Structure formats: structure tokens, C-alpha cells
């Protein structure tokens, strides 16, 4: 589901750093897909943190 949120990224003003995903949109998408909202509220912040770390590493060239 997190890959479906790729169009909902929050970027820094210079668009060189990913700040996060739009969690409101992610929760709405998950609810529309039938996922439990409580589970989404618990898991999405951790998924967001991993996604932000990986995307920023890839964009800065620090990714192997």
C-alpha cells in the first residue's frame, strides 16, 4: 500500500529532500482498500520513516 502513496510525497521547498508522505491521504487510501484504520495509524509512521530514509539516500547518491 505504501507504494500507492508515492504520489502523495511531501517535499522540502527545493524538492531535493523528501519530508514524508501525506498521512491523511494514506489513511484514506488504506480505508478505501479495506484496511483496519487502527493498524494503519500504528504502522504508517514506521513505513513513512523507512521510505523517507531510503528515498533521501537514493536522491543524495548514498545508496549502494
Structure explained in plain terms:
By secondary structure, the protein is mainly α. The chain has one domain. It is built from two helices and two strands. The protein has a two-stranded antiparallel ribbon with strand order 1-2. A hairpin with a 6-residue loop joins strand 1 and strand 2. The model has no long low-confidence stretch (mean pLDDT 84).
What's the β-strand tally?
2
First-residue to last-residue Cα separation: 25 Å
How many domains?
Answer: 1
Helix/strand order, N-terminal first: EEHH
Please name the defining characteristics of this protein.
single chain; 64 residues; mainly alpha; two-stranded antiparallel sheet
How would you summarize what this structure contains?
The chain has helices spanning 23-32, 37-60, and strands at 9-11, 18-21. With 64 residues, the protein is mainly alpha-helical.
List the helices and strands and how they pair.
Elements: E1 9-11, E2 18-21, H1 23-32, H2 37-60
Antiparallel strand pairs: 1-2
Amino acid at each position: 500500500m505504501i507504494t500507492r502513496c508515492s504520489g502523495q510525497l511531501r517535499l522540502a521547498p527545493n524538492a531535493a529532500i523528501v519530508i514524508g508522505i501525506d498521512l491523511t491521504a494514506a489513511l484514506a487510501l488504506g480505508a478505501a482498500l479495506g484496511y483496519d484504520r487502527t493498524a494503519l495509524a500504528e504502522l504508517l509512521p514506521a513505513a513513512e520513516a523507512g521510505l523517507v530514509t531510503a528515498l533521501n539516500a537514493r536522491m543524495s547518491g548514498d545508496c549502494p
